[in-house]
Amino acid sequence: MALMYHSMDAVDETPSFQAKSFFDSAPVLKDADSISNKITQFIHQNSLPGSEGPRRVVCVTSGGTTVPLEQRCVRYIDNFSSGHRGATSTEYFLKSGYSVIFLYRRGTFQPYCRSLPDDPLLECFKLTNDSSIQVVESHAEAVKSAISGHHDAVSRGYLLKLPFITIFEYLQILRLIATSMKILGPNAMFYLAAAVSDFYVPWESMAVHKIQSASGPLDMRLAQAPKMLSVLRKEWAPTAFCVSFKLETDTGILLEKAATALKKYKMHVVVANELSTRKEVVILVTESGKVSVHRENDQSDVESPLIKLLVEKHSTYIMDVNA
Ligand code: 9Z3
To answer: How far, CA to CA in Å, does 92 sit from each of 87, 177, 214, 225?
Structure first.
């Protein structure tokens, strides 16, 4: 079987034109109004002057996007990301006084739940003789800190969690968040740790039903995903502080690719990481140079010094913009 998906012939097209075509042809986002209301309300609440003044807000993206191959999707292409980076970073941002919009791939790691076992419900709880539920002693600390950390952040209005699965959902929700965060000016930060598909099947050229195997091998050409980082910087939230990630498996090209992304998309910081060492070391690439950030020991998180450094850079940025 040969399924040819035409590329978008994008040679002369600007990122904003490509973005428009992408959104115009994307499937309608389910619950768009409710998502939009949640975002608007969250940003409104966090921009009110409280005792500490209006809070800084960061949008943390986390997990990989899928590319469906069929409209009634049975098969899809996936991008690797466990969501550990995003979930861990969210905790450190909250600790640093930020409010966080956590845009995450459904089913990936969640803030405050990293120390729980794989099947928390079945492994952390047991039935007692009188059929009430009790926490298993060995997991009691992890359960307590997960519940209290999460409850504290959500009930105080500091954490909003929004799930996505496909690249269509991810980019549509990211646009809603970014255009709403525009009013925060330099107090807004984007921390784009999600692993986003570079290629996708445009909705209108996608098979509706399950692709059949009877006609032999499948031949397909994927379109290039629009470069949304440019659009985010130029149109959606032009004064926000933007941090993107660059993932490679070949260390020989990592720093050069990160430096190219920094320039091309006008990021304030690109965090370069290599797949197998991503939990131990990351390299911050900025206009003023490169800095390696290491975790302190096997038990600590590289996100602790990473977020500390980014918060400092964000503070300098806010001062410069307001000067
Ligand atoms: C990253 O590089 C993240 O640090 C990881 C985190 C996905 C490696 P985990 O979720 O891993 O903790 O398991 N994210 C960005 C990956 C990406 O797709 N970047 C694009 C690129 O490299 C730019 S948006 O071209």
So the answer is: 9, 21, 51, 31
**CA 27 – CA 84 distance, rounded (Å):** 29
* 278 touches ligand 1 (CB under 6 Å): yes
Is the CB of residue 82 below 6 angstroms from any atom belonging to ligand 1?
yes
- Residue 164: count other Cβ atoms within 10 Å of its Cβ: 24
In the CATH hierarchy, which top-level class contains the domain 2-112+157-239? alpha beta
| Atom number of ligand 1 nearest to Cα 63 | 10
CA of 123 to the centre of ligand 1 (A): 30
Query: 54-104 pLDDT, tens per residue?
Result: 899 999 999 999 999 999 999 999 999 999 999 999 999 999 999 999 999
Q: Are 305 and 294 in contact (CB under 8 A)?
A: yes
Q: What is the ipTM of this complex?
A: 0.96
Q: Is the CB of 246 under 6 A from ligand 1?
A: yes
pLDDT tens digits along 156-203: 999 999 999 999 999 999 999 999 999 999 999 999 999 999 999 999
Q: Which CATH code for domain 242-323?
A: 3.40.50.10300
Q: Is 195 in the pocket of ligand 1 (CB under 6 A)?
A: yes
